[in-house]
Each structure stands twice: as C-alpha cells, then as structure tokens.
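Write out this protein's structure.
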Amino acid sequence: MTLTPFFSTMGQAVYITFTKSGLSKYISHLDLLRLFGRALRRAGIPFEVSKGFTKRPMIVIKRALKLGIESVNEEATFILSKPLSLEEFKQRMQKQLPEGIMIKHSSFQPE
C-alpha cells in the first residue's frame, strides 16, 4: 500500500523511521499519534491538518504495534504545510520526543 498519490496533492511529505523502546513501548498507537502531534506543535514545525470537523495533524504510522512490544524500525509519514530541511525536521522533533522514541532516518521519498 502506497500513500504517495494521496499526499501528493498536499504539502511536503516527510517519511521517517523511528525506534520505540524502553518505557515508550507502553505508549499505545493512538497515544503515539497524539504524542507526534504535540511534538510537532512544540517544535514549531508547520504541519497540515485534516479537513474534517475535528482538525488533526496529518500523520500516518504504517503499522500499529501491540502494547508492550519494542521496535527498532517503525515507519511514519508527516505532511508539512511549508518546506523544511530533513536535518532541521529531525533535530527539532527529536528534542520534543520522550526517551525511548528516536528518529533514525528521514527522507522525502518512502523507502
């Protein structure tokens, strides 16, 4: 399943791979989406929001992990409303993420 055609009509897509370990393994899938949304706001990164009644950040996590499972290779996509360099995105986001969630890689193309 590729998400590229849907996202091509919106802002800049940033694809990341991240780890989820330590106590962060107890963060549920929905809470992880909220966590990433808060991190975007705190980092001051401009992001796209959904077009529905309840506005939510445009974030997609490729697979939902069971609660309590650690992973070193999770994938997520963020849609930004303004262009931002990959290094700046990674650096600003990492400062806002809790211990156990680490961004390993970021790119403009899905892997």
